[in-house]
UniProtKB/TrEMBL annotation:
Its EC number is 1.14.16.5. InterPro entries: AGMP_C, Fatty_acid_hydroxylase, Sterol_desaturase/TMEM195. This is Alkylglycerol monooxygenase. PANTHER family: ALKYLGLYCEROL MONOOXYGENASE, STEROL DESATURASE-RELATED PROTEIN. GO terms for cellular component: endoplasmic reticulum membrane.
Length: 397
């Protein structure tokens, strides 16, 4: 089995601070990767609590209830993105360890606060460039577009992750492997991801002076917008300073309309994950000339023959602010039914992670297949498709 195996228990204070990247070096320094806890897995309870709080505040204070269909689609994508981690250590850490073992030039001390803070900056810098390239290289956008496909902006959107994206990110962290121990890298890779959860909300407006340094909900709302002024901006993970340094920072101005410039209009999880990859495949074969075919893969999503690398901004669809999200009618009973089934499915998913050391490979594979079938069925239900076979939720519990 792969993944993180460290069993460090977190106090409530540490758990809360973990979500905002304010744990200290002496709390999160480990000699080996195997000692590093699976912080993302331990964050599940905090995800749920924060989701519920946002949902209640948004419904009863702001008068904007969560759209069940979009929210469950985002949560389903989050579940799918984590399924490979049941059996395998993440490709980012695995390749990093390989580089460290074979090519490191110096070895910084794993228990030094200086190493901890240097890694904090290094991981965030690497993430900026990785994130930027996912928007500027079409094949990488095929993974990242999943995260942008939600037409809502709330904490469920943070969990709408791609199962493909992690297979492009590893190369952006390799230079750190020449001198920073893998255990320190593995800690910050997780914290950088966790920090980005809470910034996916419309409930927080402006954070004053912190807006100058940190990536905030305001900055990240712009990043998720399909308004022309929002495109290709604010790639930060934790620190917004990289966008300010490299000319990609854009402040929040007009009302942000969320989602892809060409909405996918589906809640079916495989389409959410793979639709742009299929588009690239079809475009590759229909585009004449070998050089143009390569450009389809490695230039921007908006590129076409005769256009600049990132396409023409004037060809972006107009945004009026009156756009309506894809929202097939669903009865209250159907929404409750779908939510209950997803909660039961989540219990199966969580138990699979907790018991992965005791489950056989066949049982893990069976649960993964079951989860995928069930999520697909829920996606069909939320779209009001007529033909759908729901498996009973108890068959693999």
């Amino acid at each position: 089995m792969g993944g993180y195996t460290g069993q460090a228990n977190l106090t409530l204070s540490q758990g809360v601070r973990m979500m905002f990247y304010v744990l200290y070096p002496n709390e999160t320094s480990f000699k080996t990767v195997d000692e590093v806890p699976d912080y993302v897995d331990k964050a599940t309870a905090y995800f749920i609590v924060m989701l519920i709080l946002e949902m209640l505040i948004s419904s009863f204070w702001k008068g904007r209830p969560l759209r069940i269909n979009d929210g469950l689609t985002s949560l389903s994508a989050g579940v799918i993105s984590r399924l490979p981690d049941v059996a395998f250590r993440g490709v980012e850490v695995t390749t990093y360890i390989y580089m460290w073992n074979n090519f490191r030039m110096i070895e910084l001390p794993w228990d030094s606060p200086w190493t901890w803070w240097l890694t904090f900056l290094g991981v965030d810098f690497g993430y900026y460039w990785f994130h930027r390239m996912t928007h500027e290289v079409n094949i990488m956008w095929a993974g990242h577009q999943t995260h942008h496909s939600s037409e809502d902006y709330n904490l469920t959107t943070a969990l709408r992750q791609s199962v493909l994206q992690k297979y492009f990110s590893w190369m952006f962290y390799w230079p750190m492997a020449f001198f920073i121990p893998p255990s320190v890298f593995a800690v910050h890779l997780q914290f950088n991801l966790l920090y980005q959860f809470w910034i996916h909300t419309e409930l927080i407006n402006n954070l004053g002076p912190l807006e100058l340094v940190l990536n905030t909900p305001s900055h990240h709302r712009v990043h998720h917008g399909r308004n022309p002024y929002c495109i290709d901006s604010n790639y930060a993970g934790t620190l917004i300073i990289w966008d300010r340094m490299f000319g990609t920072f854009v402040p929040e101005k007009d009302k942000v309309v969320y989602g892809l410039t060409h909405p996918i209009n589906t809640f079916e999880p495989f389409s959410v994950q793979l639709q742009h990859l299929i588009y690239i495949w079809n475009t590759f074969w229909s585009t004449p000339g070998f050089s143009n075919k390569l450009s389809v893969i490695f230039k921007g999503p908006g590129w076409g023959p005769g256009k600049p690398r990132l396409g023409l901004p004037e060809e972006l669809p107009k945004v009026t602010g009156d756009e309506k999200p894809y929202n097939p009618k669903a009865s209250l009973a159907l929404q409750i039914y779908s939510s209950i089934h997803f909660i039961l499915l989540l219990a199966i998913y969580q138990h699979m992670f907790e018991a992965k050391q005791m489950l056989s490979s066949i049982m893990i594979l069976a649960r993964i297949v079951y989860i995928l079938l069930m999520l697909t069925s829920l996606g069909f239900l939320l779209e009001n498709r007529q033909v759908v076979n729901l498996l009973p939720c108890s068959c693999f519990i």
